[in-house]
Design goal:
The protein is α+β, with helices and mostly antiparallel strands and about 180 residues long. An eight-stranded antiparallel sheet has the order 1-2-8-7-6-5-4-3, with helices on both faces. The chain is globular, with a radius of gyration of 16 Å.
């Protein structure tokens, strides 16, 4: 696992483009009703090399408690079903996903801007993976007597995948991520 940390520090230095302030995103009046009813809201689209989207959930907990869960990498194995190992390292996390019997290792670098209400990240595979890179952000802010949790990810794939595959992955993955954290 030590190689992951070294690899992450070498590769993220060449990829500073991922640490950008997220766009201003707010739920519409219709989406607010959905969120307050306990459901997630997902907005998704297709990018040049993969898929991207934003998922939102309303959490009946204080902002600080939600941040503890979002950044508690060592606990990801307890609520993210495909994460089989995960540990916090300086500047991010190292983890492995097991999907359909295939194990893939990843490094995640984070830039902590909680004082501004968000954290940005870049995830890169170590070895073979259908994903070449993902970037995104978490935004956590007080809202309607609780916390509005937003997660955005932009996934670039290592090779061509049909739009339907990206749409299915985003439709399942985005709401699952915020629901499991919430």
């Amino acid at each position: 696992m030590r190689l992951f940390g070294l690899w992450a520090s070498l590769t993220t230095a060449t990829s500073p483009d991922w640490d950008l302030a997220p766009p201003s995103v707010a739920p519409s009046a219709e989406e607010a009703g959905v969120l307050l009813a306990g459901q997630t809201v997902v907005r998704q689209d297709t990018n040049r090399g993969g898929s991207r989207g934003v998922a939102m959930a309303f959490v009946r907990a204080p902002v600080d408690q939600v941040w503890e869960v979002v950044l508690g990498f060592d606990d990801y194995i307890y609520f993210l079903p495909y994460v089989t190992t995960c540990k916090a390292v300086p500047g991010g996390a190292e983890f492995e996903l097991t999907t359909k019997g295939v194990v893939t290792y990843y490094t995640m670098s984070i830039a902590d801007h909680r004082e501004l209400g968000y954290v940005t990240f870049e995830t890169r595979p170590v070895g073979w993976s259908p994903m070449s890179r993902s970037t995104g952000w978490w935004r956590v802010m007080p809202w309607e007597g609780g916390t509005l949790l937003m997660y955005s990810v932009d996934v670039a794939t290592a090779w061509y995948l049909p739009k339907a595959t990206h749409d299915k992955a985003a439709a399942i993955g985005l709401p699952k991520m915020v629901t499991m954290v919430a």
